[in-house]
Amino acid sequence: MTGVGSYLPKNKYSNDDLTKFVDTSDEWVTKRSGIKFRHFVSKNETTSDMAVNAALNAIKNAYIKKELIDLIIVATTTPDNTFPATATLVQKKLGINAPSFDVQAVCAGFVFALSVAKSLMKDNHFSNCLVIGADSMSKILDWNDRTTSVLFGDGAGAVVLQKFENIDEKLNDWGILSNVIHSDGNLYDLLKTNGGVSNNQSSGFIEMSGKEVFKHAIDKLSSSLEEALSLSNKVINQLDFLVPHQANQRIILAVADKLKINSKKVISTVKDHGNTSAASIPLALDHAISDKKIKNGNLLGFQAIGGGLSWGSSIIRIGKPHN
Ligand SMILES: CC(C)(COP(=O)(O)OP(=O)(O)OC[C@H]1O[C@@H](n2cnc3c(N)ncnc32)[C@H](O)[C@@H]1OP(=O)(O)O)[C@@H](O)C(=O)NCCC(=O)NCCS
Predict the structure, then answer these.
(1) What is the whole-number distance in angstroms between the Cα of residue 311 and the centre of ligand 1?
(2) What is the pTM of this model?
(3) Which CATH number fits the domain that encloses residue 238?
């Protein structure tokens, strides 16, 4: 993972700003979620626009020519159009010649997309892959549902994955060391939109059983991280940082507590952008790199959960092996 970038739309809303059109308060949102701000796309701004901005930053930070990218995967739940894949628009806007497709696992999308990318790279099909998480959640929020609408925001994050010839033993402990992904469709109704193309020809709005999702999140985020650690022969104390899905500060803290990881090692940016779904991990990662917390060679844990329910974790040693 040699380059990371992100993008947040210009329009930024505080909790107080929301009180103008939702019956809520800064106190409630802060106490229940830790969220203070979220960004929303402007009327003509789309998921692919955000994805392209994040991708350009990631490519710049990887110090590679964009022409080297040979695969583009976009994790999104809020595509520009029902079809084709948003990734093909990203490809066009970036001017890159590479197969491009979307992965849809809602808030867990980025971890799922990493898993797909790693497998395709391991099979020697691709060498320089762009994995993007991008979502315009504001487009599917029901502002009459105050419990859910105040939690989400828009944004994009991207990473460049590069394959290196394994000439150095160091590389066995570098890059994406393990990935685990899970789904349980029995929990489909806990977090979903109330519409869909083949259901009622609409995109629908988000509906969530917040309390239920909260409980599943703590269990499943913790267990999948433990599974990923075990697969990579690591233990929690070896992680330099945990970069969790940024949905809710209470979930982040409860999982950290359950995993017994020092809270100083847990990246939290949810306060500044709310739940940006598939964008949340690469967005938080980019902010932590910009803040000079996460550095080249650090061992990281990623973990995410979302509608499906779908969830997963990854263990990654980030950066360039030969700096
Ligand atoms: C959504 C969530 C913050 C709600 O917190 P909660 O403590 O379960 O809150 P409840 O739904 O029980 O509501 C508690 C009270 O606050 C009120 N309330 C709900 N939303 C409110 C808002 N935006 N502003 C003010 N009051 C609100 C409710 O009406 C209720 O009032 P009552 O007790 O008088 O009936 C919490 O369940 C949660 O974090 N869930 C996980 C959600 C998540 O992050 N999902 C994404 C995973 S990808």
Answers:
(1) 22
(2) 0.96
(3) 3.40.47.10
